[in-house]
Amino acid sequence: MQKNIWILSLLFIFVNTWAMESSQSPSEEVRQKEREEPEFCYLPAEIFQAELTKYLRLEDIVHLRSTCKAMQDKIPQQQLMSLSYDSTRRYTEPVIHESLISFIKHYIQGPDRLNPLHLNLSSIGIRNLPLELSQLTQLRILSLRENRLSQQALITISTLSNLRELNLGSNGLHALPQEFRQLSQLKRLYLRKNQLNFAALEILCQLTNLEELTLGFNDLRTLPESIRNLINLKRLVLSANQLSTEALRIIGTHLPQLQELDLSGNSLTSLPQEIQHVIWLKSLNLSVNHLTYETVQQLCLWFPHLEELDLNLNKLTILPSELGQLRALKRLTILDNPLSLEQQTLIRSWLPHTEIR
Q1: Partner of 224 at 20 to 30 A CA spacing, among 91, 152, 258, 330?
Q2: Are 229 and 250 in contact (CB under 8 A)?
Q3: Angle formed at CA 241 by CA 126 and CA 146, multiple of 5 degrees
């Protein structure tokens, strides 16, 4: 309660200061320019979470920081600054470029230039990116999902060598430029809902620091041998592709360090023997497949450290008692399988400490 009162008081101070400085009526040209400029979110964490100043522009925040000592004294500097656009508004690409270049200029010359940065350019329909983006050497997280990015835009992104997280989901991508391999510090890469070709997968497999890779909804039928290079990969999402049991052998032989694996929606009836080598697997999603009783029985023996198991929508009418051997299992999902009430009761007796849905 006190925190909210303090935030409101701070906003009251800012509004009064701004009103006094703006007592002269601006020209029609200035008002028109203000209507055309996109709005920014560029706020300390506490204010941002309260969403009370969500639509203040960058220059307003700079003014607020320089005039209100209370902000400097009472709010610790946010470790991750952020910029985002309101995706519900329609911006033209030139307007986006102009405002983004303006932000970059303010950022690299301002007091926050040494702080990590999060840039959200999702769902605004852009195809290209300004070359000035490469000046953001502190950019750590970049989200560009649901756009229509060109190969030139991907080359521009490739100059951001300090990126740790990149979201390129839903961009209709087929290929990746060779320059993409320069993103050697990436730890999390999201490429859901594209149509990546085999050559693009080969390039991805050069990003050896990846810990999380999402390739769902890409119509994949096979995986490259070079996936063995991803020695730090902990989470792999391959949902809604067309991967066969044979194609999955490579996961067991090349990625034994995996801890989370999503193979949902691949029309699988079984798993390859090689996959049992991923012995430290903690989360396994096999929903929306065609698994047999014997396959479920096998995976219970192969993955004794499982904490989460999703078997939703597999048309299973009975489950094996070996489920009871999964002592670490915290969550089991068996929704939308034609299991009898008696079978469900039996499963709960095997796993009395597991959340079953």
Answers
A1: 152
A2: no
A3: 15
Say what the pLDDT of residue 86 is.
62
Determine contact, residues 264/237, Cβ cutoff 8 Å.
no
pLDDT score at 197:
96
pLDDT digits (tens, 9 = 90+) for 184-194: 999 999 999 99
236-275: pLDDT as tens digits: 999 999 999 999 999 999 999 999 999 999 999 999 999 9
Strands 212-214 and 235-237: parallel
Instruction: Write the DSSP string, 267-290.
Output: --S---GGGGG-TT--EEE--SS-
Half-sphere exposure of 163 (CA within 13 A, CB side): 27
- Determine the pLDDT at residue 96: 80
Please state whether 288 falls in left (phi above 0), alpha (psi between -120 and 50) or beta: left
Who contacts 15 (Cβ-Cβ below 8 Å, separation ≥6)? Answer: none
Residue partners of 349: CB distance under 8 A and separation at least 6: none
Residues in the chain with pLDDT values less than 70: 1-90, 112
Question: Cα(21)–Cα(109) distance, rounded to whole angstroms?
Answer: 24
Contact 313, 333 (CB under 8 A): no
pTM recorded for the entire structure? 0.78
Task: Give the containing element (helix H, strand E) for 246.
Answer: none
The owner of tokens 């601006």 is 26
Residue 94: predicted pLDDT: 84
Q: How much is the pLDDT for 310? A: 98
To the nearest 10 degrees (0 to 180), the angle between helices 93-109 and 58-67 is: 20
pLDDT of residue 100: 83
Report the C-alpha gap between 278 and 11 in whole angstroms: 53
Asked if residue 65 lies in contact with residue 71, where contact means CB atoms within 8 angstroms, the answer is yes
Q: What is the DSSP letter of 37?
A: S
List, in sequence order, every beta strand (DSSP E) within the chain: 81-84, 117-120, 139-143, 165-167, 188-190, 212-214, 235-237, 260-262, 283-285, 308-310, 331-333, 355-356
Give 36's DSSP letter: H
